[in-house]
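Lecture notes, part 5. Sequence design as translation. It can be helpful to think of inverse folding as translation between two languages: the language of shapes and the language of residues. The source text, in C-alpha cells, appears below.
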C-alpha cells in the first residue's frame, strides 16, 4: 500500500507550488495511473514521494516513510527520466553493479535481462541502446531487488504500440502478484488501457480518483474518425440528418479534412455519405478524450490508428508467441531454482485474469522471487525478523548479500566496469617514463625526483595526478551518471560506502605509483644504463613518502568530489594542495617555534594504549617528519577539512526530525 498524504512542493518566487496538497493511494494488486497534462506536477509528485525534493507531506510505503525503511531498494523500484549509467558501461556490468548496491546476488542481473527480453544485449553499451531497449533495461534495474512498489515516470513515452503492450503486460504481471504499481502519463487513453485505477491531477491538485471503468465512462467516449476532402459538406449533411432523426450527435472539425463524430457509428456515417455522394477516404471507430476540467476537446489529442480485424489477429498471434517464449523462460528459471533446492510457490504463477486456465504472464518477474500468496498482498515478516521489532517490512525470497563487503563489492563493480582505470594507468606510465628520461638527460633533478618523474615546475607528479583523477571519478561519476539515490543512496551506511571508495582508490593509486616507478626505472636504464640509478642508502622513508602522497591525492579527490558533486571539482581540489595550501604551510612553518618538540616520540609511547618496542621509534619519527614536511602537512590539513565538509554535507540529509 502506497499512501501519499498532503504532498506539497516548496513554492518558488511569487509562484504557486507545483504540487499542492496532493493526497491519494496506490493499492497493492492493481496498477494506478497518475494522469495530468505536461507541467501538472506528476514528476514533482514522484520526487516528493521519494524524498528527493524538499517539500511538505509524507508518503507511506506499507506504513513507513521511505527514510525509515532500512533497505529502500527492496521496498520501491524507481524509473525517473533517462536510464542512469555511464554510456560506456555494458548492460550486464551496469546491472551487476546495481545488484551489489541493492544487496542481491550478481546472477540476478542475468535473470532480469531474460525476464525483460534483452538477454542478447548484455554486452552492448548503454549508449548504443534504442529508446525501447532503454526502457526494458530501466525496468530490469527497477525490479532487481524484487521491490513491492514500482514508481515509474512516463514509462511508455516514445514507445511503439507493441512496446506499450509489452510494458503494460509487465506492470500487470507485477501487480497480479501483490505489488503496487504507480506510473505517470499525460494520455487519457493510455491511462484507461494500462491502469486499474486513474488519479487525475491538474496544476498539482487532485481532480478525480476513479476506477478505470468509471474513468473511461466519464472521461472517454466512442467516436467515428472521418477523413474526407469535403469535411464541411459532410458535417452539414450529418447535422441535418441528426436533427431530422432527433438524435444527439456532436461533430468536431479537427482539421481541414478530418472530422470526429460523437454519438454515431461507422455504418450511419458511411450510409449518410453514400446517400449524399460525399467522398470518404477514412472511416474508423475510435475512443476519444472527452476532456477534463479546464481541458480542450478531443481535437487536441493525437489520433490512434484504426483498429482493424487483421491488426487484431496479428496482435493476438504476437501475444500467443510471447506467452510461449515467456513460459519457456519461466520453466527454465523453475528448473534452475529446483536444482538449487528452492521451490516455486503455486501462488507465484498467478495470471493476469486470476483464472486457472489463463496463460501465464510472460513478464511476471516476481515468479522467481516473492510470492504474493492467496491474498495477493506483499507478505509481512514475523516480529522476530524485523530489525527494530516493528512489522511492515517486506520479506523477499531473493537471497540477500549483505555484510561489510557489500559496499566494497559495489565499488569494485563500479571501478572495473569501464576502461577508465586502465586508460588512466597507461597514460600515467607513458608520461611518467618520458618525464623521467628527460630529467635524467638534463641531470638537474635529484635521483628521487627523477624516478618519481616530478620536475620542479609541476605541482604534482603524473602518478599523483592520475591517483587524484581516479579518486575524483569515485563520487563524480555517481552524480553525473547516478547509480545511487541523490539524497540517500541504495548502499546502506554511507560511511561504509566512503570507506570502500577510499580503500579501493588508495589501492589503485599505490598500484599505479608502483607501475610508474618500475616504468621510470626501466626507461632510464634502457636509455642511459645504470649510471643514473644508484642504489639508495635509505629507501623506506622515500617509499613511505611516495605512498602517502599517492594515497593522500586519491583521498582528496574522493572527498572533494563527494562534497562538490563534480569530478572536475575533485581534481581541482587535488591540484590546489600543492598550488595553494603548500605555500601557506611553508609560510607558517618558516617561523621559528617558541618551544622545541624533542622527545615527542617517547611521549607518544607513554600515552599510547598499544606499547611498541623501542626499535620502532625511528619509524614513528620518520612518519612524523614526513607529516611535518610542507606537502605532507598540506595534504593532512586538506583531508581533515574535506572530511569535515563531507560529514556536514553528505550525512546531514540522514537526520530526520
Amino acid at each position: 500500500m502506497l499512501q501519499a498524504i498532503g504532498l506539497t512542493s516548496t513554492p518558488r518566487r511569487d509562484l504557486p507550488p507545483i504540487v499542492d496538497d496532493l493526497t491519494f493511494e496506490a493499492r497493492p494488486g492493481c496498477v494506478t495511473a497518475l494522469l495530468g497534462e505536461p507541467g501538472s506536477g506528476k514528476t514533482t509528485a514522484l520526487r516528493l514521494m521519494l524524498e528527493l525534493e524538499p517539500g511538505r507531506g509524507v508518503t507511506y510505503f506499507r506504513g513507513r516513510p521511505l527514510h525509515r525503511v532500512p533497505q529502500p531498494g527492496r521496498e520501491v523500484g524507481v524509473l525517473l527520466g533517462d536510464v542512469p549509467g555511464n554510456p560506456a558501461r555494458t548492460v550486464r556490468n551496469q546491472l551487476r553493479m546495481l545488484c551489489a548496491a541493492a544487496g542481491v546476488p550478481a546472477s540476478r542481473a542475468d535473470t532480469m535481462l531474460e525476464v525483460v527480453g534483452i538477454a542478447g544485449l548484455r554486452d552492448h553499451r548503454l549508449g548504443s541502446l534504442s529508446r525501447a531497449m532503454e526502457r526494458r533495461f530501466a525496468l530490469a534495474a527497477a525490479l532487481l531487488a524484487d521491490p513491492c512498489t514500482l514508481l515509474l515516470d512516463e514509462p511508455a513515452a516514445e514507445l511503439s504500440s507493441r512496446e506499450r503492450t509489452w510494458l503494460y503486460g509487465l506492470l500487470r504481471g507485477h501487480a497480479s502478484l501483490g505489488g503496487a504499481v504507480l506510473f505517470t502519463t499525460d494520455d487519457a487513453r493510455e491511462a484507461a488501457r494500462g491502469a486499474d485505477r486513474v488519479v487525475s491531477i491538474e496544476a498539482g491538485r487532485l481532480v478525480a480518483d476513479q476506477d478505470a471503468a468509471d474513468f473511461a465512462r466519464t472521461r472517454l467516449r466512442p467516436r467515428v474518425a472521418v477523413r474526407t476532402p469535403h469535411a464541411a459538406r459532410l458535417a452539414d449533411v450529418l447535422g441535418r440528418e441528426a436533427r431530422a432523426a432527433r438524435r444527439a450527435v456532436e461533430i468536431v472539425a479537427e482539421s481541414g479534412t478530418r472530422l470526429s463524430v460523437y454519438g454515431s457509428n461507422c455504418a450511419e456515417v458511411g450510409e449518410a455519405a453514400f446517400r449524399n455522394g460525399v467522398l470518404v477516404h477514412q472511416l474508423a471507430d475510435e475512443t476519444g478524450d472527452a476532456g477534463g476540467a479546464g481541458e480542450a476537446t478531443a481535437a487536441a489529442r493525437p489520433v490512434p490508428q484504426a483498429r482493424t480485424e487483421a491488426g487484431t489477429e496479428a496482435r493476438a498471434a504476437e501475444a500467443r508467441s510471447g506467452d510461449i517464449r515467456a513460459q519457456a523462460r519461466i520453466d527454465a528459471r523453475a528448473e534452475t531454482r529446483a536444482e538449487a533446492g528452492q521451490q516455486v510457490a503455486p501462488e507465484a504463477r498467478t495470471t493476469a485474469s486470476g483464472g486457472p486456465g489463463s496463460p501465464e504472464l510472460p513478464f511476471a518477474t516476481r515468479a522467481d522471487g516473492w510470492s504474493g500468496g492467496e491474498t495477493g498482498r506483499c507478505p509481512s515478516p514475523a516480529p522476530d525478523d524485523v530489525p527494530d521489532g516493528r512489522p511492515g517490512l517486506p520479506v523477499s525470497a531473493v537471497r540477500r548479500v549483505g555484510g561489510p563487503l557489500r559496499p566494497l563489492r559495489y565499488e569494485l563493480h563500479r571501478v572495473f566496469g569501464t576502461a577508465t582505470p586502465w586508460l588512466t594507468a597507461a597514460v600515467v606510465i607513458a608520461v611518467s617514463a618520458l618525464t623521467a628520461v628527460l630529467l635524467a638527460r638534463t641531470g638537474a633533478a635529484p635521483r628521487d625526483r627523477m624516478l618519481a618523474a616530478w620536475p620542479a615546475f609541476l605541482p604534482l607528479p603524473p602518478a599523483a595526478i592520475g591517483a587524484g583523477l581516479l579518486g575524483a571519478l569515485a563520487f563524480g561519476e555517481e552524480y553525473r551518471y547516478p547509480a545511487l539515490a541523490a539524497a540517500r543512496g541504495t548502499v546502506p551506511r554511507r560511511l561504509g560506502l566512503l570507506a570502500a571508495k577510499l580503500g579501493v582508490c588508495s589501492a589503485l593509486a599505490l598500484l599505479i605509483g608502483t607501475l610508474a616507478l618500475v616504468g621510470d626505472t626501466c626507461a632510464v636504464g634502457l636509455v642511459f644504463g645504470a649510471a643514473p640509478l644508484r642504489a639508495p642508502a635509505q629507501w623506506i622513508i622515500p617509499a613511505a613518502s611516495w605512498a602517502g602522497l599517492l594515497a593522500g591525492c586519491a583521498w582528496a579527490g574522493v572527498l572533494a568530489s563527494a562534497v562538490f558533486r563534480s569530478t572536475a571539482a575533485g581534481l581541482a581540489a587535488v591540484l590546489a594542495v600543492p598550488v595553494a595550501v603548500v605555500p601557506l604551510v611553508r609560510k607558517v612553518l618558516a617561523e621559528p617555534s617558541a618551544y622545541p618538540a624533542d622527545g615527542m616520540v617517547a611521549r607518544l609511547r607513554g600515552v599510547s594504549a598499544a606499547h611498541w618496542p623501542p626499535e620502532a621509534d625511528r619509524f614513528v619519527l620518520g612518519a612524523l617528519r614526513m607529516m611535518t614536511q610542507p606537502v605532507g602537512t598540506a595534504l593532512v590539513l586538506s583531508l581533515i577539512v574535506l572530511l569535515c565538509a563531507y560529514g556536514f554535507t553528505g550525512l546531514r540529509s540522514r537526520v530526520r526530525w
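The translated text above is only one of many valid answers, since several sequences can fold into similar shapes. The chain has 21 helices and 13 strands.
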